[in-house]
Structures are given as C-alpha cells and as structure tokens.
Amino acid sequence: MELTVNGHAVFAHTGGRPFDPARPAVVLIHGAGMDHTVWSLQSRFLAHHGRSVLAVDLPGHGRSGGGPLASVAELADWVPALLDAAGLPRAALVGHSMGALVALDTAARHPDRVESLALLGVAERMPVHPDLLAAAAAGEPSAVELVVGWGHGPRGHTGGNPTPGLALIPGSRRLMRGVAPGVLGVDLAACNAYVQGAASAEAVVCPALLLLGALDRMTPAKAGRSLAARIKSSQVVTLPATGHMVMTEAPDATIDALTPFLGLRRG
C-alpha cells in the first residue's frame, strides 16, 4: 500500500489483506537501517486476526521516498501524519529498537493518537559507540557487520531460522546492505542523541507491553525493565535465548505476546 505523507511516497505492508481504516489498526515501526520486512510474520498474523496493519517503511527506508528523518522527535511527529494519510484517528503502535523509541515518543507527544504501545528491544537510552557512528556515517561495510553481529543472540549465530528458507544473520546483512547510503548513520545518530526516554515513559497514558530479549546485548533486558517501571500501565515479557532482534529471532513468541495485549485470539 502506498500513501503520501508530508509530500513523499510512503510504503506500508498490510499483511496480505486490504487495508480497512474502519477496523482497529496497528502500525509496526522498524529499527535502524531496516524496513517493513522484519515484521513479515507478525504483520500477516495480525492482518488475519482482526487488525488493519501498516508495517511501514520509514522515510528514506525500503520503498518509501524522501530522506531519513534526523531525530526521534521528528519521526514521532511524522507518525500522526501517517495516521492522517491512512484515515486513522488512532492506532496501536508496535516498535522495535529505534522504532520503539519512535513509538514511545509518539505516545508521549500525541497521546490522543495512540491506543496502546508495544516496545521490543528498548531501553531508556540507546547510546552508540563513536566508532560505530563514524563507520555508519561513512558507509563502511563494517558498520552493518557490527550491528548484525551484536544484534543477534546465539540462535542467529548458530544457523537456522523459524522462517523456512531464511537464515537470520545473512538475511539481516542483506537487508541492511540494501539501504540507501547514509541512512544507517542517520538512524544510529538519532538513537544516540535521544535522551528523553525517561520523560516520555512517564508521560505515556496508554497501556504498554515491553517485549525484551533475555540475551539482548544492545538494549539489555534489565534496562527495558527499568523503562517499564516508569510507565503507568505496563507489562513485561522477557523471551529466553533471544537477542535484540526479538521479532525475527522469536517470531512465534512475539505473536503470542502481542495477541492478548492487542485483544486478539490465536484461533
């Protein structure tokens, strides 16, 4: 599905079903240097179990036009414009990593537009090592290797994938190598600069689910639990043997957690 948001074409995958703005909607927001394909299994499940789905490519990512937005706050203000373009007064937001910060900040800045909030691989602060920032800004291949290697738990490094025909590390590497030059650097800089996590969490008024990987080295589960404690109405699910790439490393467990939180049934 293609929308026009702030004058630029934006692509959103609808999970294999026509988008209907009259149904309860969920927006899936990917992380740094990625696109909507990281939500392949979740978007399809949600679309076939009662939700209208927008698994969006953020500006400058995937099949969306324009350039990447330089800050989490800009992206958070972009989300309501996306909802307007889709004819949605409000939606549930599900975000991963940078996308989780965007979802969190959107809920704090635009509470009337957010029904509920699910945050995967998240922490109050997401500092990025200066060497990685520099490598990403310069477009060096090592930046992708660092993110992909550090971002996956043991399951990703030992082969196999819950999705038939795919492998976690090669799949992520291919995805991130395909982004436009400079995009990963902009995204990582936005994560590094975001310092409003605590204040945003305390401003959230909708229900929140934090879905954390027990072996996440980028946003450790302990940091996720600390963030959850700042949200008025939150619940935490910690997935064993899972790293930062929660929705691809543990896709079924991710669906199992999202299903009751979003008021859906597995059957």
TrEMBL record:
Record-annotated AB hydrolase-1 domain positions: 26-257
Annotated TM spans: none
Entry superkingdom: Bacteria
Annotated InterPro entries: AB_hydrolase_1, AB_hydrolase_fold
SUPFAM superfamilies: alpha/beta-Hydrolases
Pfam family, one: Abhydrolase_6
GO molecular function, one term: hydrolase activity
Key word Hydrolase present: yes
Keywords: Hydrolase
Official protein name in the record: Alpha/beta hydrolase
Protein source organism: Azospirillum doebereinerae
